[in-house]
Amino acid sequence: MSSYEVEMDDLGNKKQRTSTQAAEIPTPTGAPHDSTEQVWALTVAGVLAVLSLPLLFFPRFLLFLSNATDSALLTPLESFLCAQLGILVLGLAAGVVIASPDIPDISDRDSNPLLAPISIAAAASSLLAWNAKGVGSLGVFMSIGTGVIGAWGFWAMLFSGSSYISKKTGADKRTSTWLFGNKTAARAQKKAWKARQKEM
Which residues form a coiled coil (predicted)? Predict the structure, then answer.
């Protein structure tokens, strides 16, 4: 009987016990913030930025690091490739920081977080490649390729998704009511919207 009474007491205090247990369990919002990914992203970005500096600004330092004693100067092709690689690594460093989930929003999270840094890096690479001397048609070829990537990226940042959706009704303008009577078409939704406006 005594064990039964204890069980009854425990059942009677169940509400109180569960409320105290719930208070002890940390919720996801109240949990301590783990900044491991943020520290990793900032460390990777810092290392990549430091690696890009000699590629962009001090390419002769690479000769010192490689113990190349036979040539004191970089060839134009080596200088060109160092500059292109430096810009790419710098764009990648910016992309790592922007894509990190713990970093406050720098760009619109609805779009690809690498869109802005890669587009800017491609545009800078295109301008630098166009003005490169001593590499022949490689500079023009590289300039056209990275220019297309940069221009397309800027176009996507400015105009993606804005022209197809109606601001009044929210309908997709690419659909049509002709032939099959699509109820989600912009024209049908505009008529329904005008009818609702008249009723008000």
Answer: none
